[in-house]
Amino acid sequence: MRIGFFGGTFNPPHNGHLRLAEVWRERLALDHFLIVPTGTSPHKTPADVPGGMRLAMCRLAAQEAGEWLEVSDFEVRRAGRSYSVITLSALHEQYPDSDIYMVMGADMFVTLETWYDFERLKTLATFCTMPRNGISAQELEAYAHHLAGVGCRGIVADVPPMDISSSEIRERVRCSLPIDDLVPPGVARYIETHGLYRELTV
């Protein structure tokens, strides 16, 4: 089985996240794709929207995609920081003999060697990314080549991403601007119902 794994704060999840999952699902012929919202991220300031609410929004977003896309509560349930090596190890226990493809942003991809327990991490997945945030496909390909030299598998897809960010959505909500074209309808309703992002968030 070939499994996609996409972790992040998802604060909130948006249409760009869903498109990214679909691109990699098709490109890698994945059988299953997991979105895994973090509990406490080791890379970012803790989100001020609780994990349970971000998890609920991810589940609403996933309903737009179909049965191939699943949301896992593993990191939200787990106490402590959400290190990918722990989550990937758990996935291998849950799906033995599967190939796991971890999808990540370009900025995260080029820092992989600094991640917690990289020596074990690199054995657990193939790491997948695409150009974004001013990091070109050429730069990513060069880093993927470097990673191959230290025994870490990387794949770069030269696909233009949707120009959407969670921070932009939070700012638009704070300014009472529409977000209907940026997030799935269920996520928009959840944000409105729970009054999220009315104050500037992290």
Features:
202 residues; alpha/beta; Rossmann fold; 9 helices; 14% strand
Description:
The chain is an alpha/beta fold. The chain has one domain (2-161): HUPs (Rossmann fold). Helix content is 40%, strand content 14%. The protein has helices spanning 15-28, 51-62, 74-77, 84-94, 106-109, 118-121, 137-149, 166-174, 185-194; strands at residues 2-8, 32-37, 69-71, 99-103, 126-129, 154-156. Strands 3-2-1-4-5-6 form a six-stranded parallel sheet, with helices on both faces. Helix 2 links the parallel strand 2 (32-37) and strand 3 (69-71). The longest helix has 14 residues, at 15-28. It is globular. The model has no long low-confidence stretch (mean pLDDT 91).
Principal-axis shape: globular
CATH architecture: 3-Layer(aba) Sandwich
Quote the average pLDDT. Answer: 91
- Share of residues in helices: 40-55%
Low-confidence blocks of residues: none
Order of helices and strands: EHEHEHHEHHEHEHH
The CATH class is identified as Alpha Beta
**What name does CATH use for the topology?**
Rossmann fold
CATH evolutionary superfamily? HUPs
How many helices does DSSP assign? Answer: 9
Q: Quote the distance from N terminus to C terminus.
A: 37 Å
Portion in strands = 5-15%
What does the radius of gyration come to? 16 Å
Largest beta-sheet details = 6 strands, parallel
